[in-house]
Amino acid sequence: METHKQLVIGLFGFGVVGEGLYKVLAQTPSLNARLKKVCIKNPGKKREAPAELFTTDKNELLNDEEINVIVEVIDDAVAAFDIVSTALKNNKDVVSASKKMIAENLPALLELQQQTGKSLLYESAACASIPVIRNLEEYYDNDLLHSIKAIVNGSTNFILTKIFEDGLDFKQALTLAQQLGFAESNPTLDVEGYDAVNKWSFLLTHAYGIVTTTDKILFNGIQNIHASDAQVAKEKKQEIKLVAQAKKLNNGKVAAFVLPQFVKQTDHLAFVKNEYNGVVIESGFADKQFFYGKGAGSLPTASAVLSDISALRYQYKYEYKKLYHHQPHELSTDIYLRVYVSFNDINSIPKDKFEWIEEWHSQEERKYLSGVIAFSELKNNDWWKQDNVSLILSAEPIIEEIETRNLKKKSLELAGLSL
Ligand SMILES: NC(=O)C1=CN([C@@H]2O[C@H](COP(=O)(O)OP(=O)(O)OC[C@H]3O[C@@H](n4cnc5c(N)ncnc54)[C@H](OP(=O)(O)O)[C@@H]3O)[C@@H](O)[C@H]2O)C=CC1
Ligand SMILES: N[C@@H](CC=O)C(=O)O
């Protein structure tokens, strides 16, 4: 087998991540990798690198036979897919950080990897500096992965920390996340949960062999979290985090969602602040394991890109073991969730859709209830995503089976409500 192959790199993108990689490569001479050319979009921008390195002609990189590795770190998912698929077809290995592109094109990318035999690595697209994909592929290569829950978006975690711990308002916190290079070029992707669910969709492939699209995963972002929710969290001695999770159910299927959640202070994820990410994996015999590291930013992200480049020296490829070598799992919607919902107007909440209600606070201007609701009710409707409605999962949200009808009626009666 060929080892320690000489790498000649063509880089697409010289923004937060691309420039970070340029610096990191310069400080890693042992890698024996040469950056031959960088393709960017706007030739007029001032760059901290020699002018002769840059081009705006993608074909200068994609058709250069000496270049054997394409690193794609641009902020345009459509152009990124074109670059990555052409590079693979042109017999080049590829490293990408573009989670939106990967989430939107995974079946095609899987096929291209199989057809071409080339490697496509994208560790930095998941949790930036945390090596989660390689761990899911290599270390948890068995049936024992019971659950995985994680903070996978650095910007929203940063914003929540800055608002609730440092007293910034939402706009100030988001602006800071943008200035520090954590946020996407379109920050709605972060704030409204799209970035997190994009990452979660392909992490499900590496964890459970599930190939899915983001519309099949229940998700929301942090845009509707209200100051009064933070007050409730404080009273419960809990925190609010945007948490992605997947759990193997008793029926053998997997429940997956990305939603704001109350997190107990004893939970590992409560420890994850600012732009950090954290991943808690629960597996048979090992119990819980916690991975922690920076989830956004120039050098932390570049460090994961560098690690992928380095892995190409020994022809490392994802084997997608859970997909190709095991029986892949299926997603299930057949569960119930324990949720908290705050709102201004009770008429915006279909309270009869709850299986039962456990808490009901209607005195304050901002009202809230806690109760149990079918996952499918949330999946099929969007009243809970509307302005002025904030839905937050409880700390232990999943209920697999309920004795539904009797309890529902009885509990609503106890709460002074009727169907
Ligand atoms: N920032 C972070 O913390 C992380 C980002 N990522 C992902 O990495 C990618 C890059 O992010 P980031 O560096 O922050 O983004 P930036 O906005 O900082 O940089 C984007 C770069 O892409 C270039 N670009 C855009 N379109 C093209 C094109 N068609 N051809 C060539 N170059 C192009 C831009 O060129 P020009 O300079 O000329 O404008 C720019 O250099 C994104 O997919 C992002 O989601 C992943 C993990 C963490
Ligand atoms: N915008 C992303 C960047 C890294 O993936 C985030 O905030 O997590």
UniProtKB/TrEMBL annotation:
Keyword Amino-acid biosynthesis in annotation: yes
All residue ranges annotated as the Aspartate/homoserine dehydrogenase NAD-binding domain in the record: 13-123
MF GO annotations: homoserine dehydrogenase activity
Keywords: Amino-acid biosynthesis, Methionine biosynthesis, NADP, Oxidoreductase, Threonine biosynthesis
Domain Homoserine dehydrogenase catalytic: 131-309
EC code(s) of this entry: 1.1.1.3
EC top class named in words: oxidoreductase
PANTHER family the record matches: HOMOSERINE DEHYDROGENASE (PTHR43331)
Record-stated family: Belongs to the homoserine dehydrogenase family.
Protein name: Homoserine dehydrogenase
Species this protein is from: Terrimonas rubra
